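Exercise: predict the fold of this chain.
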Amino acid sequence: MYRARDHVENERWLAELQRTADRLDLDTAARSRATDLFLSTVTEWDGDESDDSKRAVVAASLYAGSLIAGDQRSQGAVADAAGVSRLTIQQRWKTLLEEAGLQPPSW
């Protein structure tokens, strides 16, 4: 669960999430899931305030959110749209799900 303050404090990154979702043409459910994942885990990443780190969390949130919502995009497509490496998403998305209290798939 996240606080309203998290939304306000991360307005810049939520706007970036929406712009990246636009580039990926994600549906509303995937965007909503990605936003929830980002805001639910943002406090876990507060120690690393770098733009690269936040961008990586945005990308991992979009990948995982699209996976959950059934509007899946490849890690490569999300990485290209977000301006990160595919490896960045690969290294973060399962941890992000676990921090949000969700069970990552075992495949």
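Check your answer against the key: The first helix runs from residue 4 to 9.
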